[in-house]
Amino acid sequence: MTRVVDETHHSEVALTLDGATPKTLGVLDQGALWANLAVSLLGFSGALLLLNPLGNAPLSLAAALTATVVGSLIGTAMVGLSAIPGTQTGKPAMVLLRGLFGARLSYIPSVLNIVQMIGWGAFELWVISHGAMAIFGTAVPYAVWVIVAGVVTTALTVWPLGAIRLLRRYVTIAVIISLVWFAVDFLGKAQPQTGGDWSAFAPAVDYVIALSVSWVPLAADFARHSRSSKAAFTGVVGGYTLAQVACLGLGVYAVALAGAAAVTANPTAVFGPFVAAPVGALFFGILVLRETDQSFANVYSTTVSLQNLMPRVDRRVISAVIGVLTIAIALAVDVTSYGAFLGLIGAVFVPMFAVLAVDYFVLGGRNRWNTGEDAPARWAMLLPWALGFAAYWVTTSSVTVPAWDDIWKPLREAVRQPWMNGALGGAIVAAVVTLLIGLLSGARIGSRR
């Protein structure tokens, strides 16, 4: 009798881009991965930006929670759709962009993604270290925690599919128990802000969308290993939406307990109520340990993005170098500019997603994209991306980098209406211009050229 071997026990990501792409991840694997990525330690302090995104127009609790649900659904739908081409082609995100922009032009978003992922990776090591120090105090220095977290992160990138299966089997259950434990404790103690209105609803939705779409540039890196497009999309939208709503909702109560002023002055102050809860150190320790999945995802995405530039270099070598670099940055650089970073990411990658979605799903890109190293340049696709980037800054109400925002202020004041949303504005403009370019160039919608 022939014995059937479970492929999930032995398949791993190929060491170079030339290798085969194992299809071992089901909907539960994807759901567990994205649910864990949605729970961020400093995502709890993000409730400050959710409740008062403009700094002078606080939302009511109902408005803030509605913005969380609406923004999460919009953002995760973008991430889920960007995952599908990865499943269908077996290509990581930046290699897919060879089909959209051409091989050489795909280096532009690849470099941008490498920079932002290294930044996010260093930020996560900073977060993990401060979370550990909230539990253990200063007996173990910050630098030691950074190095330990960096080593664990790098090790996970060597066995990425194994890391995802570990999340599904063990970590996700522990995280759910921890969140429920803290929710029960906080609901009996905290008094979230009352009052406020709906006037800042659009910028609050902008903020929540930005939290989600920061993952657009790496969705295909993991979805390419899904057994089906449905599993990838459902895992992203279901897992990430539920967990992000829970994370931000819990954050509202954590901020109320820690004090908004304290969290504004020091975002890690939000850790206090978690550690102070009964058996809080244990359950918060689970959340700190789980945060390594965030740094793992960032370092792994950096690795496969670099493989777009160096397709035959062993990913383990790249991961080791990126791991060391990320540790060094976390030790030497202030990586706490969270809100500004999110705004910049949204402005760059939301329009790029819209260009990809229209060209791939509407204009028949799935049938004609060339993702090889010889893919010709498609200069026209840079235009809708650039216009979408500009539209984001014209329609957004979020101020991130004052000097940069001053450039857009006159046009924004002339054009923007209170109901406008930067993420949607950038996506719509990029999508419409892409569609027009496709139609003018003779593309037949939904079919081969």
Automatic annotation (TrEMBL):
Recorded topology in the membrane: Multi-pass membrane protein
Membrane-crossing residue ranges in chain numbering: 33-55, 61-84, 105-128, 134-158, 170-188, 200-220, 232-263, 269-289, 317-333, 339-362, 382-404, 424-443
Subcellular location as annotated: Membrane
InterPro entries: CodB, Pur-cyt_permease
Keyword NADP: no
Keywords: Membrane, Transmembrane, Transmembrane helix
Keyword Transmembrane helix applies: yes
Listed Pfam families: Transp_cyt_pur
Family listed: Belongs to the purine-cytosine permease (2.A.39) family.
Name recorded for this polypeptide: Purine-cytosine permease family protein
Annotated source species: Nonomuraea typhae
